[in-house]
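[step 3/7] fold_predict: job queued, chain A
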Amino acid sequence: MVINKNNIENSKNPWYWVPSLSFSDGLPLVAVMAVSVILYKQLGLSNTAITFYTSWMYLPWILKPIWSPFIDLVKTKRWWVLAMELLLGAAFGGVAFTIPTSFWLQGTLFFFWVVAFTGASHCVAADGFYLLSLNEHQQALFMGIRSLADRLATIFGQGVLVMIAGNLQVIFRGSISYSWSLAFYGVAGLFIALWLWHGYALPYPLPDKQRPYVSVSSIWKGFLLTFHTFFSKRGIVAAMLFIMLFRFPEALLSKVTALFLIDAGHNGGLGLSPQEYGFVQGTVGMIGVALGSILGGVVVSRGGLRKWLWPMVCAYTLPDIVYVYLSYALPESLTVVNCCVFAEQFGFGFGLTAYMLYLIYYNRGEFRTSHYALASALMTLSLMLPGLIAGGLQEMLGYRHFFIFVLLSCVVTFAVAAFVKIDKDYGIE
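[step 4/7] structure written:
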């Protein structure tokens, strides 16, 4: 009897690799979108430059639907996962190496771009690998585990990693560049360890094979068909306004809030240390998001999305007022800051449920997978464009007036939500 190696390898317990693969999938995005903001602020870059440079790093995730089919043309999903993790380790090592140098801005931006493109490619390969390695029952079973691991990656990046850098600054007497360099060398080592682990733990699913019968022309035809059918859908105008503008206040706010929390008091900020920031935003804030998301899923499953749309819109927007309060009060109590950030992030997680469920709802039908991927790319674009100018707008207005402007801009979210049509029973179990 001939024993197929693939059958043996495919029997590996998903608990060995699903959590770690989801963690490695989420960390690159956190690093380039959130951790880089703190790094550049501490290195003395202006808010205008920080938001402009880091917002452009959304681009690989926007373009992901275009190049993702080409991954099928070369090697297997397993090969791509391992190759991208090894490259991520090298890219983070490049970030660490260039931070203490005279060309730190050019060097770190280059390697962060490598992290962004590699991380987006890893995301494509990992998503495909999940589908090929797990049956439908396992996919449903591990969906929560994947989401939890992704949250842990966010907490590790925004919380633990920033706190480690802050503690190293204490140990090395305020050497910011050296401390951050050591922290990113640690991330590089982590990805090398994940690469080694996944080389052993990932199965060899039988369907995971190169598809030489797929041509470049067929891929482009498929993409054009997806594009055409998406923009020919009924109610596309209202849907596009919702997709592109619902998150407009968040797109302005997301990076500036991090800058506000750590900026010095004489600049209008709260002056939190990296350790304090890591705890407030990276830990307490992420717990708030997770709890809000869980509650959002529960209430929609009982009452439906249409019933809960407006409460979720209110929860998503109105808590932004806490930053208006913080910018005027400038409290010294860390407890007050934690409560404000938790409340805002809880509302964010609760309200974002409506947005993400609407993407699923609108993209039902024959091309649901490809349409959802395109809608997700447009969602990322909606975050990138306002983010490019957010720092410049804040420096022009100051933190107080900027947060007031963001609060007023919430009317955009209310306006686009008013035009969407949702079936009464959608979302109810």
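[step 5/7] annotate
The chain has 16 helices and no strands.
The longest helix spans residues 368-417.
exit 0
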